[in-house]
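Re: [ENG-882] Designed sequences occasionally contain unexpected residues at chain ends

Forwarding the minimal case from QA. Structure tokens:
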């Protein structure tokens, strides 16, 4: 077998392979003879089917399998001989050759880039310093109360915070349009589920009242058929319910998992959960900066094939996430190109982390992985069962191993980069409205 490797780009390579015809024929013949021992055909006992009939029925399939195996073997041998690491899958094409004694193929593929770790000693990483004070606990308690809000009928005009039930029908130029009509539709004023003009029209109305108003859809509205157009709506307000927050008492504490209803114990558990969440978010911000410092200091060209594969995986995850929320994804456009930027970053980061782990010996120890699993399990009611679940799910455990490796990489970066502590308000870290 003759092998020739040529460079056609920074990472692209092409290999030309020649597979001897007589080698293919011998393997095809051998496989057909083996197949004939067990194949079943009407009118023949097992093992007594003439080889000629076996070849007629199974020959093309067997030849295709033999040829595929031979080309794959030749490609693997060529990669070992040239000491090349293939990224993604090769594109293999048959070549028209004049040599009848051999079949020629070309394989176009990409190789992994050489990763040269950069200098991160000048990188800046800001570590948020956040205090979990009593005010933060009370704000969190208020969020928990709002999550358990009840709505009671209100005999007054609708106002922000109320849950209203309405019937409406919209028309554009006198013609009804898709999605412009509903009956018994409920939403909470002020949650911005509806367009501002629609909520403004409902505010101040009384139950049983009907009004007509005009509303212009934004130019970038998701419903392209009505974007930028003005519709006339007829709206009837059926019901108004006002929010009733639960009192902070023993019964409320029990809904949070405090069996005896002790309020001091409830606040202590809330504080522990908030402190855990704060640490998680601080670590996430530091990690993002540390990993970005690695990317910025280690520029490299990433294989297009790996970026395409990663983009497809991101599409699948996004679709699965939406589906798990009960959304129908058949009509949603999932363009892998929209995920290309994120995919490229993830591929680059994966290559850098792999090289850094190899060069600096940063692979996580089993005890470190176990500690991460136990830490993750603390947010569940039965931590011990969650830990067992992780160790029974190889895929999930692999994810924790990856997180442990990233943790080691972040620690390595922080030991070399310039790290400064930055005071940050609790609200800023947690995000508005959380």
């Amino acid at each position: 077998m003759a092998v020739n490797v040529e460079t056609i780009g920074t990472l692209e390579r092409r290999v030309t392979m020649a597979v001897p015809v007589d080698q293919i024929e011998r393997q095809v013949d051998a496989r057909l003879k083996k197949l004939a021992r067990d194949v079943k055909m009407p009118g023949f006992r097992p093992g007594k089917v003439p080889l000629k009939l076996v070849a007629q029925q199974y020959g093309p399939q067997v030849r295709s399998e033999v040829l595929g195996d031979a080309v794959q073997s030749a490609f693997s041998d060529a990669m070992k001989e040239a000491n090349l690491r293939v990224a993604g899958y090769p594109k293999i094409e048959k070549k028209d050759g004049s040599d009848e004694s051999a079949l020629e193929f070309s394989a176009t593929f990409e190789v992994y880039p050489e990763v040269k770790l950069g200098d991160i000693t000048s990188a800046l990483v800001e570590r948020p310093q956040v205090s979990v004070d009593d005010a933060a606990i009370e704000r969190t308690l208020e969020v928990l109360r709002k999550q358990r809000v009840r709505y009671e009928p209100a005999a007054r005009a609708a106002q922000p915070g109320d849950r209203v039930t309405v019937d409406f029908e919209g028309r554009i130029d006198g013609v009804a349009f898709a999605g412009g009509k509903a009956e018994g539709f409920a939403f909470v004023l002020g949650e911005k589920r509806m367009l501002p003009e629609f909520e403004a029209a409902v505010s101040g109305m009384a139950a049983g009242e009907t009004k007509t108003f005009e509303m212009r859809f934004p130019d970038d509205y998701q419903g392209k058929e009505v974007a930028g157009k003005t519709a006339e709506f007829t709206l009837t307000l059926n019901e108004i319910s006002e929010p009733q927050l639960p009192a902070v008492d023993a019964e409320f504490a029990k809904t949070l998992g405090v069996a005896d209803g002790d309020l001091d114990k409830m606040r202590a558990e809330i504080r522990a959960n908030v402190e855990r969440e704060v640490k998680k978010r601080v670590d996430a911000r530091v990690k993002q900066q540390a990993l970005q410092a690695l990317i910025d200091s280690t520029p490299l060209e990433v294989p297009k094939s790996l970026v395409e594969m990663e983009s497809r995986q991101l599409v699948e995850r996004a679709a699965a996430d939406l589906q798990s929320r009960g959304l129908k994804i058949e009509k949603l456009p999932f363009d892998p190109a929209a995920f290309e930027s994120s995919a490229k970053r993830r591929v680059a980061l994966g290559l850098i982390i792999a090289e850094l782990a190899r060069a600096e010996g940063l692979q996580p120890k089993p005890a470190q992985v176990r500690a991460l699993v136990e830490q993750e399990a603390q947010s569940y009611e039965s931590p011990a069962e969650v830990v067992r679940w992780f160790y029974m799910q190889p895929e999930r455990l692999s994810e924790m191993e990856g997180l442990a490796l990233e943790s080691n990489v972040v620690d390595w970066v922080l030991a070399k980069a310039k790290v400064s502590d930055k005071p940050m308000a609790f609200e800023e870290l947690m995000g508005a409205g959380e």
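QA comment: On inspection the terminal residues look reasonable. The mean pLDDT is 90. Proposing we downgrade this to a documentation issue.
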